[in-house]
Design a protein that fits this description.
By secondary structure, this protein is of the alpha/beta class. The chain has eight helices and ten strands. Strands 1-10-9-6-2-3-5 form a seven-stranded parallel beta sheet, sandwiched between helices. Strands 4-8-7 form a three-stranded antiparallel beta sheet, with helices on one face.
Amino acid sequence: MEVVIVQNAAAGGELIADSIAGLLRRKPDALLGVATGSTPLPIYQALTAKVRSGEVDASRARIAQLDEYVGLPAGHPESYRSVVLREVVEPLGLSESSFIGPDGAAEDVQAACEAYDRALAEAGGVDLQLLGIGTDGHIGFNEPCSSLASRTRIKTLTRQTREDNARFFDSPEEVPHHVITQGIGTILEARHLVLLATGEGKAEAIAQAVEGPVAALVPASALQLHPHATVVVDEAAASRLKLADYFRATFASKPDWQGI
């Protein structure tokens, strides 16, 4: 696992945006897996700036959704489809046809999960998947004790995750109890996994995911099994890493660093 410690969230966003820009230069129609929440916003802002300045052309890029709430009405501002369209697709100047996502309003949710896995495979697979990490070590909505071989499926959110997400809703009671999420097995099929974490509140989860054993109790630890996984953390999120000095030295020893 490649671990990069940066000064702050903006620096992490810029570094990852540089990597995405490099990917788009090599493969203009790359399929980018995106995450929602506040953590990846610096990535999307930095990438949008590069597109608008002409530094990179994203017009042929495709966007894949990591997860979706179940039961929110179409067009709900906090459905993850709406969030991705608002924060990624529209700022990058892409059309909605570039977007692939699961149907959280489907009558048959299990069929929708299976259809989404098929859609990802038919699209050629995800080239770069952005991830965040929960305070309990979850990735996507794969809560602790999720199978490391799991596929896209419906999950029940824990009380902790619903409390963490309540800030996006008018009241905690409005947070859905169920979601569709790419499974850990699905996530691990992406060619490059990039996880961004910032803040001291993520420090213990990062330490367990990076330096602890691979365990279903810490779903993000499954990234240790991937041939190209990058974890980008600020100093606060890196504060419990025993090998933090080693990771800093490794990054500093690459003066010609061109991305991750």
